[in-house]
Structure formats: structure tokens, C-alpha cells
Amino acid sequence: MSHFDRIKPPVDASRRTTLKALGLGATALAFPGLMRSTPVWGIPTDIITKAVPRTGEKLPAIGLGTHMTFDVKPGKPREHLREVMRIFYEGGGRVIDTSPLYGLAEVSIGDYATALDINSELFIADKTWVTGEWLGDDSHAQQQFRRSMERLWRDQIDLMQCHSLVNARTVIQAMQQWKADGQIRYLGASHHLPSYYHLVAPWVEKGTLDFVQVRYSLATRAAEERILPAAMDTGTAVMVNMPFEKARLFKVVKGRPLPDFASEIGCETWAQFFLKWIISHPAVTCAIPATTKPKHQADNIGALKGPLPDKEMRTRMLKHMETIPEFDKVANMPAYPGKSFDGVVKRGSRTPAKAK
Ligand SMILES: NC(=O)c1ccc[n+]([C@@H]2O[C@H](COP(=O)([O-])OP(=O)(O)OC[C@H]3O[C@@H](n4cnc5c(N)ncnc54)[C@H](OP(=O)(O)O)[C@@H]3O)[C@@H](O)[C@H]2O)c1
Known about the structure:
12% strand; alpha/beta; TIM Barrel
């Protein structure tokens, strides 16, 4: 019996055509078990889920982000990330967000998900970030989509998002076709900079997207102005990126105890406090925190349990944060305080002389 209520289009019917179109037919048909796309069963019944407005499909309200964290250079230790994914899955997590822009993150996901034998049970949210040879040319989008499928070892991606609205008209049109063909189930667009929300909002207001992904946290609440209300009006699901402000929120509360009232909403840690505030907004479908640490993953996925704050409690949580020095400066602090990453993205951002 499914607790996930997935409403997937009949992928198998178009499977042969889809694989052929992707140039994957021979390989996929020779190894059918490796590229399946079957419904998700068996998430725990006692976790917080939210319905995707367009279909009613229920998703666990905490997902997993992979920017920087899952981009590991070949030859470097990576077992900790497989453990992160295992703990995530066993805690009820299913939604994993990635992008071709995140270096080798897609490869890592495809690898761990296949090794853990959970690939078909995940809700994979990927992205497209391409321009083209000329305006309106979607050949790069098609190429990137094919490569993402190969890296993720999938013949269907649950959600594709136009990353940072890059080349949005052409890319979203291509996604509409992928959706019609059954290669993706939902389409969306993402951004993380509030200064671009005026460009994201019209897409949500027109109801073009199934999902919109934006940054929304106790410290960055600009999405409340147009995007979250429009999402509720148009039945657009909302995925929330940067829920910890790239770890800056932890820097602000370092050494501080949680307020006593946190126990009323079942929060044992600051991570759960930050996450429950986000997912308790009625427009929000899920938040996608990222981590490299199994211990932190256990902490984050713990936010799927217990009560959610109501409107009054959300106000109280915010008021408490506003009493903490430096909270109002979070957006201007350097990202990932005290952390460093060593993957393809980091390598690409070095000056040529230093790149090794
Ligand atoms: N579309 C877009 O424009 C866009 C932009 C940004 C992000 N995103 C997506 O959103 C995801 C999340 O955003 P993000 O990765 O930028 O930042 P984030 O999730 O706000 O923060 C991640 C940082 O928080 C730390 N952390 C996680 N759990 C913790 C815990 N329980 N206790 C203490 N520290 C903890 C992690 O460090 P440790 O490794 O030490 O745990 C990591 O450095 C991304 O991975 C990506 O998938 C999308």
C-alpha cells in the first residue's frame, strides 16, 4: 500500500520511444532494471507531507539539496555522502534537488541511489541551465537533459526546473514537450536571489509552472510579497532553497540555547527550528537543506516529525530571532562560514594557474 500517492503517467507505455529519442534505447532495454521509473512506496506514515497542488501527490516536506555538498572530486572520500542519503531515505526523505550546474552532484546521486537500490523511489528535482546557438535554439537543452538522465541513471525525471530563469522561454517550452512525452512529470523554474523575484513572479502568476523554487528563510522573507501568495492562487507547488542561508543562520545562533517554546513544536535543535518555520507556511511544499554530514542529516530529517507551528507561533519564532544580534546581517555574511568544498565547481572557479 502506498503512502506516497504518486500519480505517474504510464511511463512504460512510452518507454521505448522515450529511450530511443534519448539515444539510450539499446542500453536501457538490455538492462531494464537499471533505468526503471516506478511509483514510490512506503514512506513512514508519521511524517509531515505536503500535497503538490496540481495532482494531490504527497511529498515529504523535507528534501535534500546537493549544491557543493555532493560535488566530490574523483578519488576523494565520498562514503559519508552515501550515508547522508541513506539516513535521509530511512527518515522518510524522498525529494532530492540537483542541477547539471552542481559539478558531479548528479553523478553522485545516480551512484548512491543505485547502490542503495532506491533510485526509482526518489522524487528527483533537476534543472536545465543552457543558452543555445541562437535565440530559440533548444538543442543545448535537449543535450543537457539527455546527459542528466544518464548521470542520474533515470528514464524519467520527476521535476525539471529552469535554473535561475536562464533562457526561460525556450527552456520552458522544451520542458512542456518533455512533460507531454512523459519524460518529466512536472516543470518549474528556480531562483535564489530576491532581486530577481519580480522576474520569477509573472511565471507563477500566469500559472505556467507546476513548481517554483525560491529562497525563503527566517532571514530572507521576500518571497512572501508576491511569490508565495501567487503560488497559492495558481496552485503552484513551492520548493524552498537555502533554508539555512548557506549555514549563516547557524553562525548567528552559535552557543545560544533554543527558546523554551521550541519544545511546543517538537524542535530539539536550531536546524529543526529553522526548517519547521519554513515548511509551516501554507504555500510551501518542501524545503531542501543540504549537508555533507550524516549527523546533520539525521537532525534535518527530524523536522519531518511532530507538530508544525501555527501562524502565531511563526510570528513568535521570528520575533525571537530578531532579538539575536547579527540576525539582521545574515544576508551580507560570507556563505558557508568555516567550510570549504573541493569539487568540479570549486576547481572551475579557481584561476587557471592554480587549477589542478
Ligand atoms: N536554484 C537555485 O538558484 C538554488 C540556489 C541555491 C541553492 N539551491 C538548492 O537548495 C539547496 C540548499 O541550499 P544551500 O545548499 O545553498 O544551503 P543551505 O541548505 O541553506 O545550507 C547548507 C549548509 O548548512 C549546513 N548544515 C546543514 N544541516 C546542518 C545542521 N543540521 N547543523 C549545522 N549545519 C548544517 C551544511 O554544512 P554541513 O555540511 O557541515 O552540514 C551546509 O554548509 C542547494 O543544495 C540546492 O540544491 C538552489
